[in-house]
Amino acid sequence: MNTADVLERRAERGRPRGASQVWAAAHRAAAPPAAVSAHGSPLWFRVALALWLVGLMAAASVAARSGGGDTTVISPAQEAADEVDGVLSLPAPILVEGGTLRQGRTGVMRPSDPDYDGGDVIDSVLGPRLREETAGPSEPSEISVVFARPSAPYEGPILGVDQSANGGFRVWGVNADPDEITALAQDLQLTGEISAGDTGLIEVARFDNAVDINDGWHRRTWQFDFRLNDNLGLTVQAESGGSDDEANAWLWLVRLVDRGSADVTIQPVDVLGHQGYVIRSAGRTDTIKSDGDVVWAADGFAYRMTASSYGDNVVSGRDPVLDISRLKIVDRAEWLEALEQSASPTPWEQGATILALATMAGLVLSTAYFLVKRTYRSAALTVVTVVMSWAVVGSGLLLVPRVLALVGLALAWWLHARSVANRAAPEPRTGPSA
Amino acid sequence: MENRQPDRRSLSGFELFESLYSSLRRFAAVVADSDVDPDDLVQEALVGVLARRTIDELDNPAAYLKRSMVNAASGHRRRAGRWRRLVPLLADDGIGVDHYPSDLAILDQLDPLDRAVVFLLDVEGYSGLEAADELGLTHGAVRKRASRARRRLRSVVGAELILITSPTEERTEEST
Question: What is the ipTM of this complex?
Fold first, then answer.
């Protein structure tokens, strides 16, 4: 036996385990401990989770502020307004030629009077009445008196006196220059009973607690917003409770000038066969921009129409006289149909509703699945998503909550997949069997 | 120089290892001490590779693994210390000793690197240069280690030594 034989025998000692086994064992030994870490989620996940939580909190906060439910606050002046006798009737079925009632719940506003009873017809068409929050007038007046010429009152100066609850006076004028108004005001009798004094005018109207309509919603007012095209709109308001057609016109005048504006004019105009008036004032600062108001009264309602144009996020006034001819009286059925369409959800809203339902179903089913698979962190994530999504229901937020819900669902599924992967034993890289 | 490496162009990592396994195991069986399983030494060397890279990333995986095995075997040997070297002597009471002493005892007396050198030269048929390249040694170191190892083995085995050398090396024949 030589050295080579010895070495050869040595080289053949033992029983080989085979390349496959050695390879597999080496890979197992080479794998880092806890190769797929169950802890320490990647940075992007933590950032996404943080942003998602912030988004949910913000959406819930907005929903809480926007409120839902009965939060009507009636202004003190409205509370003291004349009581409504009996049931408020429906206004005239007025629609606008070439215009559509804007969809959504702001398209048609019904009176907020608790005693208002629109009957089954309106409730079935528009759904449950929404109670709007109202604000009181900035400076409620206790008495408003209007003086005008005995004949052709709208062709001459018109004076008005507002006496506030604390006894103060405010005099305003229409269809006259400031100097003339000042001179006439000096001839008014303002002590004791307010009267025309030596102005040569006569009292044409007297109101208690006339309300500045731009400070709040009327308890007895309907409002219809029509969209003519993407840039033009018309608004028609109808206030019930007036029995004196002419007095209602003066009431509108009192309201519309009770803002310290100058250069007010009032001119008669025909509206749907009724005596109407165009009231214009320069330098108006009302939030609802218009270049004048067309007012008229009919069948116990006082109507007001304004026209606006939209562009570059700015609302500008338009001469409402240009759109008087668009007003038309239609069948009650056609009017109700238009109201119903205005209250119907837009395709966008319908899609958002479907998406919301699908997302909610996905969240609920995913939660059940995660619980069965014992990926509890994912289940917690979907539960939080469901709860927060439910909290924003009715807030008016459409897109944001849906997106946040989908993001939450995606994060939960990613977490689930990661958890499942962590549980699986790391597979060694094995070759084909020997 | 003979190309002892398989064609790696189309081999996966495992396939490459599988092609080398037989020679690696034989090498490990020689290099490792008798109480070390050859497959364990191969595995240990392979783990060292896989911890940082894949086997097919190596230029010469066979050589790399063999060097790793030599280092590992040396490490085992150092950790075992004097006690392992003493055991064969203590157990050797002269009774029942084979006329041809066990190769386990013989080779364990050699340094793992010496065993590797003489194995590659005398069994695997490597030339001095090839063995040097394989083990990461100089040619002179290979010749020195081979000479030392053979001398040690001859003193124990006493068998005729047949050396397979390259034409450039001196051919030596000795008879008992």
Answer: 0.77
In which band, very low, low, confident or very high, does the pLDDT at A101 lie, cut at 50, 70 and 90? Answer: confident
Q: What percent of chain A lies above the pLDDT cut of 90?
A: 9
Query: Dihedral angle at the C-alpha atoms of A252, A258, A263, A266, nearest 10 degrees?
Result: 10
Residues 33-92 in B contacting A (C-alpha not used; CB under 8 Å): 34, 37-39, 42-43, 46-47, 50-51
pLDDT band at A315 (very low <50, low <70, confident <90, very high): low
Partner B contacted by A365 (CB < 8 A): no
**Which two tokens mark A297?**
């009264």
* Residues of chain A found within 8 Å of residue B103, distances taken between Cβ atoms: 6-7, 9-10
> H/E/C letters for each residue in chain B?
CCCCCCCCCCCCHHHHHHHHHHHHHHHHHHHCCCCCCHHHHHHHHHHHHHCCCCHHHCCCHHHHHHHHHHHHHHHHHHHHCHHHHHHHHHHCCCCCCCCCCCHHHHHHCCCHHHHHHHHHHHCCCCCHHHHHHHHCCCHHHHHHHHHHHHHHHHHHHCCCECCCCCCCCCCCCECC
Report the amino acid identity of residue A223: Q
Q: Assign residue A364 a region (left: φ > 0; alpha: ψ between -120 and 50; beta: otherwise).
A: alpha
pLDDT digits (tens, 9 = 90+) for A118-133: 555 677 777 666 554 4
Q: What pTM did the predictor assign?
A: 0.48
What are the distances in angstroms from CA B43 to CA A26, B12, B51, B78, B111? 5, 18, 12, 19, 21
From B40's Cα to the closest Cα of chain A, the distance in A is 8
Contacts of residue B159 in chain A, CB cutoff 8 Å? 1-3, 5
Encode pLDDT of A321-344 as tens digits: 888 999 999 998 888 888 888 877
Place of tokens 């009507």: A72
Write down the pLDDT at residue B171. 43
pLDDT of residue A121: 67
Q: Which of B16, B110, B122, B160 to mutate to test the interface with A (most CBs of A within 10 A)?
A: B122
* Alpha-carbon span A94 to A328, nearest angstrom: 6
Tell me the C-alpha distance between A146 and A254, whole Å.
8
